């Protein structure tokens, strides 16, 4: 609840009260809460798809009204790698929010693999080409990969001159998700 409160810009007690109100209105417990995890109850599982559809309708309605007013408003939901959240985006998002106070930003900081369609993101920033033909990719900056070796290793194994020369070498690969 603390992380959810932080993401929403609210206090943990406000989030707790909102969940309690939702459960009271639903007439059923929706979440199992303990010190280690929060999981959906069976009632929560059944309510979730309906709540998601309602939120989609609400966002669509806000977008329609924003088109009438001529000013940017509504939600932008996106995901970026953790490093952007630590070093680049805080200042950029603060400036964007000052210029567009009627826009709510929902940012997920994640280095893991994401399905933008399933996550209902407006966009994601990743260091790879889109895996789905339903997605469109745009380069944001030049992205180069580098190959490093210690002088001692090169003295023992030889210096590769072409990519094919790497087949006989011991390599340590960066294997983070590439979506």
Walkthrough of the structure:
It contains 6 helices and 5 strands, in the order ααββαβααββα. With 179 residues, the chain is α/β, with parallel strands linked by helices. The strands form 2 sheets. Strands 4-3-5 form a 3-stranded parallel β-sheet. A two-stranded antiparallel sheet has the order 1-2. The model has no long low-confidence stretch (mean pLDDT 83).
Strands, helices and their partners?
Layout (H helix, E strand, L loop, with lengths): L1 H7 L3 H15 L4 E3 L4 E3 L1 H28 L4 E7 L1 H6 L1 H11 L3 E7 L13 E2 L26 H7 L22
Parallel strand pairs: 3-4, 3-5
Antiparallel strand pairs: 1-2
Helix pairs in contact: 1-2
The CATH class of one domain is identified as: Mainly Alpha
Q: What is the typical, i.e. mean, pLDDT? A: 83
Per DSSP E runs of 2 or more residues, the count of β-strands stands at 5
Largest sheet: 3 strands, parallel
CATH fold category name of one domain: Arc Repressor Mutant, subunit A
Query: Topology as H/E string?
Result: HHEEHEHHEEH
Termini separation: 28 Å
């Amino acid at each position: 609840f603390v992380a959810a409160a932080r993401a929403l810009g609210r206090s943990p007690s406000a989030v707790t009260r909102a969940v309690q109100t939702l459960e009271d209105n639903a007439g059923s417990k929706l979440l199992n809460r303990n010190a280690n995890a929060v999981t959906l109850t069976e009632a929560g599982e059944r309510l979730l798809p309906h709540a998601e559809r309602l939120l989609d309708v609400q966002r669509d309605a806000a977008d329609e009204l924003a088109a009438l007013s001529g000013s940017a408003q509504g939600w932008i939901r996106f995901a970026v790698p953790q490093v952007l959240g630590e070093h680049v985006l805080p200042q950029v998002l603060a400036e964007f929010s000052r210029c567009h106070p009627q826009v709510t930003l929902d940012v997920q900081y994640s280095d893991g693999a994401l399905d933008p369609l399933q996550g209902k993101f407006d966009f994601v920033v990743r260091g790879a080409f889109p895996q789905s033909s339903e997605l469109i990719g745009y380069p944001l900056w030049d992205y180069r990969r580098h190959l490093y070796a210690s002088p001692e290793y090169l003295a023992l194994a030889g210096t590769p001159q072409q990519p094919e020369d790497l087949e006989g070498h011991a390599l340590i690969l960066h294997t983070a998700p590439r979506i």
